[in-house]
Specification:
90 residues, mainly alpha, 2 domains
């Protein structure tokens, strides 16, 4: 990988030098993307999916006045095994 970075950074083509800088800055992340655990590559896709679902819930809600209610809706939507805990009315 270091050899590729060196070649890109010393290229006479500006785009390749820019690409070399990008590869150098993201070197650790690129190498980590090839790590395999249990014959599968590591991925953050599960977390990205959860974040997407949370954003969809918030967008569809058109605003929440009660944070506890929003929190409970998100937790229940993400993890169906969590019991619903209501907040008593005053």
């Amino acid at each position: 990988m270091d050899e590729f970075i060196y070649e890109f950074n010393n290229s006479h083509i500006e785009e390749l030098r820019t690409f070399g800088k990008i590869i150098k800055n993201w070197r650790t992340e690129i190498i980590n993307s090839f790590i395999r655990i249990g014959n599968r590559r590591l991925s953050n896709s599960a977390i990205e999916g959860v974040n997407s679902r949370i954003k969809t819930i918030i967008k569809n809600a058109n605003g929440y006045n009660n944070f506890k209610r929003l929190r409970n809706k998100i937790i229940f939507s993400i993890n169906k095994n969590v019991p619903i805990k209501g907040t008593p009315k005053k």
